[in-house]
Amino acid sequence: MVGYFLKRLAMLIPVLLGISVIVFFIMALIPGDPAQAILGSYATAENLANLRADLGLDKPVFQRYFIWLGNLLQGDFGSSYTLNRPVIDEVLDRLGPTLLLAGTALVLCSIFGLLIGVITAVKQYGWQDRFFTLIALLGISTPSFWLGLVLILAFAVKLNWFPVSGMFAVYGGGDLPDLLYHLALPALTLAAVATGVIARLTRSGMLEILRQDFVLTARAKGLSERKVIWHHAFKNALVNIVPVIGIQAGFVIGGAVYIETVFQWPGIGRMLVTAITTRDILLVQGGVLVVATCYVVFNLVADMVQHLLDPRISI
Amino acid sequence: MKENLSSLLEVRNLTIDFHTMDGIARAINGVNFSLFKKEKIGIVGESGCGKSVTVLGIMGLLQKPPAKVREGQVLFKGRDLLTLPEREFAEIRGSKISMIFQNPMTSLNPVFTIGNQMGHVIRIHQGLRKKESIEKAIELLQEVGIPSPEKRIDEYPHQLSGGMRQRVMIAMAISCRPQLIIADEPTTALDVTIQAQIIDVIQDIIDRFESSLILITHDLAVVAETVERVLVMYAGKIVETGSVQELFESPKHPYTQGLLGWITNIETERGKLPTIDGMVPSIFNLPEGCSFSNRCKQCIPICIRQEPPNIEIKPGVLCRCWLYSEER
Amino acid sequence: MEPDNHLVVKNVVKHYPIRKGLFSKIVGNVHAVDGVSFQIDRGKTFGLVGESGCGKSTLARLLMSLEPLSGGQILYKGQDISRFSKKHIFEIRRKMQLIFQDPYSSLNPRKSIGHSIEAPLVTHGIAANRKERRELVTQMMDEVGLDVEQFKRYPHEFSGGQRQRVCIARAMILEPEFVLCDEPVSALDVSIQAQVINLLCNLQKKRNVTYFFISHDLNVVKHISDVVAVMYLGRIVELAPKNVLYKRPLHPYSQALISSAPEVNLKQKKKRTVLTGDVPSPIDPPKGCHFCTRCRYVEKKCTNEPSPELIEVEHNHFVRCWLY
Q1: Which has more pLDDT, B79 or A33?
Q2: B67: which strand partners?
Q3: Distance from CA of C162 to the nearest CA of B (A)
Q4: Nearest residue in chain A measured CA to CA from B56
Q5: Is the pLDDT at B24 greater than 50, yes or no?
Q6: Boundaries of domain holding C217
Q7: Which residues of B sit within 8 Å Cβ distance of C?
Q8: What are the residue ranges of CATH 1.10.3720.10 in chain A?
């Protein structure tokens, strides 16, 4: 188990290197000149050239990559010229709110997704199945930014139950209830798609497990139906659903980017959107790298949990 | 016949339908039989004949829907199981009546240890504590001949061979000293040498625990070696009932004759095997008269028109065939 | 008829490496087939019995050149097919066909059965045109007892027995000389098994095909075969004409196997030798004789010395045991 874990950790290195390559070159290839963005449209050619040299942008792109990578390995992500502070500080400041939002959404979608999945499987073709399947499909097929706007309109603007945006109240907030109050709508919005996906997969997984012989054995042993479903079938189904939850964790973090924009949530997503529009390349690269790392780590954790659940996978 | 022994199980006119997209299929039709204490009976037939549906119906383990018990009673020690509330029925399952399934590879839950799965059934029916239930489980594994049971108890099913897993299933089935054990093709999925081991274990257990046995199989040879009385099923009905001797020495129903013809011939010389031509009719679309009439070599006009009655040829020997009727 | 050694198998070995660890180092081998030799005469049936995991399916794949050998030779009419190129193997496939156990999964559900039977003709470019091909197919369907009307039907409309007939037709349409039957009746009902076995026997008589017949059902093998080999943990432990083998099995494993097979014989309950324990893992087979862990007659020699050879103890009766 420990050996396998170390092996998987070692495999993270090439993955992260690959991510760094993709992140760097995509940013280098997209049109737009950081020097121009900093100096504005009235800058002289000479000033632009000087700034480019200062930023190292006059060097060939491969050389720039290796300089950046070398700095990264020493923990230096560079500094953001729009914010005038080290990228790493800004990213770490923003990571907390994003992880809070994504983590809450993940917990919500796991609980609701699994619950709905099991109910729809057990009551296959019943009204519960039809009703929740409809909800799940709506969740999957509704674009989350649109869902976010609808929720804001309904629950914040019309009903005034929740705040429109932000993480804390401007005056007097800052405690836990205030945080949860602000967290509710964005977390729900973010969880919607993943809930649908997890619910559908749990349903099909449970249906397959419920057909297995050992479920019949469990019933023949005289177990109550509740025990058969939650003790025998669910744990088996979970083995295959956990990796899906890991992948959904990645999508949730990715989805946070636009949800944060819709709800003005001060996380990495919003930071990235601003950084992209201002061509703050180092900030974008740093931010994406951290998000990608989170994604990979989530998947790793999901795999480990699957191994713990399933004794047949020997490692 | 064991007249002085009271009957343990009595199945009366059990009829089960399956409601599917393609229509209603009559899986079993008017199944009647009784089983005495300490008696061993076999139900023989080919796939789709309704033998598994019969025992799953007795155990109340059919998925409803699509299955539906149309009529009939299952009297276990005089109580009709089919009208019992689910809670009370569940108390009987696994304690008074227990079951061994065909495929030991898939019948144990892969994510729990042997001890966990066995302990569970012991705890719910006997109210023992966890530690005691594990001790009991180890004892049971010893009974069914599993070497070093105290080590096996912490292993997962995939670490055991097929034969060992089937022994675990048997140990689990006998954990509450059931009065009736139902074994559904317990050796079909196993290798020949392992089959012989498992049959021996089942025989031994039944005799020592003084249970009754219903053995379901398509293998006439296994039946011949294991049980005392045989029911032959075809297309949802019992077509012949009799003691093992009677059935193998002078089979009455043309279908039984056909099956036996194959078995005794294949063991001998090479040459053309006697066959039963054609196929089992679809249960969605059974012939009007005798279900076997379309394959029967001795078919007479009445067979196609009218269903044959169940005729008692001599005490304990029943056959559903017009050939033995005086009314034909 | 003079025996012409249709297929000769010489000391065939197949190992599968087991890889482990960070660098996928080979840490051991699964000895799936461990030095198997035999020969089959034209038009005869060679039966192979053994329990699951004994290597009989691996041997089948090797015979059909579906996997490379780790060692040894397979001579088909004197040619070593194990060294053949892909092109040659394709040509030889025409003469060597295969019938599988499961008639449900071995037919393409989206192809009508007529097309399934016709497909090999197209692949091998036999028959000049469509019309000729159709004629061959209908002839074949008739021969295996399928209704020609059913040409356009799909597999799901057929029962297991009929599907197996389709598979047989598909294998036989190329007029092969050698057909490997891997448990062809195991998935079928008892009353249907007899029909399929009769069909296979008829086809053999008519076409002088050689069968290599794998089954775990001793009775079926006994009925259909001329020569029977018993396999245990990758090795043939006994090989003899079927009557000899079934009447007087010599190897302790064959004895146990044959006595374990349930039989309908109420008059004299036979005394069974029930083997204890399970088959050892082929990753780490016992040193010496592979059967020594379960054998009743085990001696020091069996465990200490390398495995005995397959020796001819009487005419055409080979046994791999120190007792003889």
Answers
A1: B79
A2: B18
A3: 9
A4: A220
A5: yes
A6: 7-95+176-319
A7: 46-47, 161-164, 191-197, 199-200, 218-222, 224-225, 244-245, 248-249, 258-260, 262-267, 270, 272-277, 279-280
A8: 92-309
Return the domain boundaries, chain B. 7-85+217-324
Instruction: Compare CB distances from A220 to B99, B124, B156 and report the shortest one's residue.
Output: B99
Note whether C231 and C58 are within 8 A (CB): no
Contacts of A128 (CB under 8 A, 6+ apart): A119, A120
Best probe of the A interface among B109, B180, B216, by most A CBs < 10 A, is B109
A90: phi then psi, degrees, rounded to nearest 5: -60, -45
Residue B3 CB burial class (10 angstroms; 0-12, 13-18, ≥19): exposed
CATH number, domain of C250, equals 3.40.50.300
- The answer to which of A278-282, B202-206, B314-318 has the lowest mean pLDDT is A278-282
Contact C229, C37 (CB under 8 A): no
Residues 6+ apart with CB under 8 A from B49: B233, B234, B235, B236, B280
CATH tag, A92-309: 1.10.3720.10
Quick: pLDDT tens for C234-264.
888 899 998 888 888 888 888 888 888 776 6
Interface contact B193-C256, CB threshold 8 A: yes
- Name chain C contacts of B200, Cβ cutoff 8 Å: 274
Neighbours of C268 (CB within 10 A): 7
Please name the member of B47, B193, B221 whose beta carbon is closest to the beta carbon of C264: B221
Angle between helices B114-126 and B162-173 (to 10 degrees): 10
Please tell me which of the candidates C162, C218, C223 has its beta carbon nearest to residue B192.
C218
**With contact defined as beta carbons under 8 Å apart, do A231 and A214 qualify?**
no
Please name the residue that has the structure tokens 């009939």.
Answer: B72
- Which three-class secondary structure string do you get for chain C? CCCCCCEEEEEEEEEEEEEECCCCEEEEEEEEEEEEEEEECCCCEEEEECCCCCCHHHHHHHHCCCCCCCEEEEEECCEEHHHCCHHHHHHHHCCEEEECCCCCCCCCCCCCHHHHHHHHHHHCCCCCCHHHHHHHHHHHHHHCCCCHHHHHCCHHHCCHHHHHHHHHHHHHCCCCCEEEEECCCCCCCHHHHHHHHHHHHHHHHHHCCEEEEEECCHHHHHHHCCEEEEEECCEEEEEEEHHHHHHCCCCHHHHHHHHHCCCCCCCCCCCCCCCCCCCCCCCCCCCCCCCCCCCCCCCHHHHHCCCCCCEEEECCEEECCCCC
Model pLDDT, residue C183: 86
Asked if A224 and B90 come within 8 Å (Cβ–Cβ), the reply is yes
| B107, B133, B156, best to mutate vs chain A, most A CBs in 10 Å | B107
Beta bridge partners, A112, equal: none
For every residue of B212-258, DSSP letters joined together read EEEEEES-HHHHHHH-SEEEEEETTEEEEEEEHHHHHHS--SHHHHH
Low-confidence ranges of chain C (pLDDT < 70): 1-4, 20-24, 263-271
Q: What's the whole-number average pLDDT of chain A?
A: 83
Examine residue C205 and state whether it is found in any structural domain, yes or no: yes
Cβ-based burial of A106 (10 A; exposed 0-12, middle 13-18, buried ≥19): buried
Nearest beta carbon to residue B94 from set A214, A220, A235? A220
Specify whether domain B7-85+217-324 bears CATH 1.20.120.80. Answer: no
Q: Structurally, how many domains does chain C consist of? A: 1
What pTM, to 2 d.p., does this model score?
0.79
Sign of the C-alpha dihedral computed for residues C151, C157, C163 and C165 taken in this order: negative
Which regions in chain A score pLDDT beneath 70? Answer: 1, 169-174, 313-315
C44 lies in a domain? yes
The Cα of C88 is separated from the nearest Cα of chain B by a number of Å equal to 36
